[in-house]
Design goal:
6-stranded mixed β-sheet, alpha/beta, 4-stranded parallel β-sheet, binds pyridoxal-5'-phosphate, 2 domains, Rossmann fold, globular, about 325 residues
Length: about 325
């Protein structure tokens, strides 16, 4: 079955395998016996992140459909949109991003990079996202621009395969841990990790820290995605909902609104590891990790791998100015 996965077409974008670093100072600070960090923030495309892996499969699929334009959607500071815009530039596609919200006064963070990569940006309210995506698709189709729609977060069965392959990569790096912790949002990363664990017989507990969705909704989404991938690629195992571990206790007031825990986690990774997290995704997952260790849910004698999924360009977004320090 690993061979079947390896045969699925993909383009080469990411620098793989991404490194795994052993943390010592931070591990001591947060009170865990063994802490590894898998550096998917170093995938290499346009400041890196987890979407690079998914795009390797999605771009190959777009090419096989004869597409000329990639369309996707996300929040103003979407890392997925930034990476899609960069991949579009690299592979010669036009790119249209449907971003939810109002255009800000200035381009900053990921949004600045979207523009650098030449993406067209269409703004819409969140409720109108699906309708707007369809309208953009129709317009491009009528203009002969052969659109290809990449789902929100790159999370469909094909995108999820990327993280199945990533878990196989991890097992080939010879690291076996009790827990794998990371931010989970549209579910493709976690669905893929669960599939990959089944494919290589790994038994780490895969714990997604929900960035925005209630646990029941996110688990259902991951369940659906992983089973769609199983059907689409005829894998001979199943994923039960009870195997999907999600913690939604760190969502605070919602997506993109950093909590004090998020803020502290970003500061601790910076000051004890010299490592940049981000205020939306990895900061939240790290806040969850630190708290779960403090509570004893993750016992202090465990080995943990924190899967760093990227996102640091959002640190430079105008909307997060003043989050860490008052401006001088
Ligand atoms: C930095 C970062 N981490 C994690 C995620 C969540 O990944 P997924 O949407 O596959 O659950 C995202 C999604 O946008 C992200 O940008």
């Amino acid at each position: 079955m690993k061979a079947k996965l390896a045969a699925i077409p993909r383009v080469k974008i990411a620098n793989l395998p991404t490194p795994i670093e052993k943390s010592t100072r931070l591990a001591t600070k947060i009170g865990i016996r063994e802490l590894w960090i898998k550096r998917d923030d170093l995938t290499g495309l346009a400041l890196g992140g987890n979407k690079t892996r998914k795009l390797e499969y999605l771009i190959a699929d777009a090419q096989s459909h004869g597409a000329k334009t990639l369309i996707t959607a996300g929040a103003v500071q979407s890392n997925h949109c930034r990476q899609t815009a960069a991949a579009a530039a690299k592979f010669g596609f036009d790119c249209v991003l449907v971003l939810t919200g109002e255009p800000p006064a200035r381009y900053s963070g990921n949004l600045l990079l979207d523009r650098l990569f030449g993406a067209e940006i269409v703004w819409c309210p969140k409720e109108a996202r699906e309708k707007t995506l369809q309208e953009v698709f129709q317009r491009l189709w009528q203009e002969g621009k052969r659109p290809y729609l990449i789902p929100y977060g790159g999370s469909n069965a094909l995108g999820a395969l990327a993280y199945a392959q990533a878990v196989i990569e991890l097992s080939e790096q010879g690291i076996n841990v009790d827990w794998i912790v990371f931010p989970s949002s549209s579910g493709g990363t976690q669905a893929g990790m669960i599939l990959g664990s089944k494919l290589c017989g790994a038994n780490s507990r895969i714990l997604g820290i929900s960035v925005d969705l209630p646990a029941a909704e996110l688990r259902q989404r991951i369940f659906q995605l992983s089973n769609e991938a199983i059907d689409a690629y005829s894998f001979t195992f199943s994923v039960g909902i009870e195997e999907i571990w999600v913690n939604d206790a760190y969502r605070g007031e919602g997506y993109g609104i950093p909590t004090e825990g998020d803020r502290q986690a970003v500061l601790e990774f910076a000051r004890y590891e010299g490592m940049l997290l981000d205020p939306v995704y990895t900061g939240r997952a790290a806040a969850g990790l630190i708290d779960l260790i403090n509570q004893g849910t993750i016992p202090s004698n465990s080995s943990v791998l924190f899967w760093h999924t990227g996102g640091s360009p959002a640190l430079f977004a105008d909307s997060y100015q003043g989050l860490f320090f008052a401006n001088p």
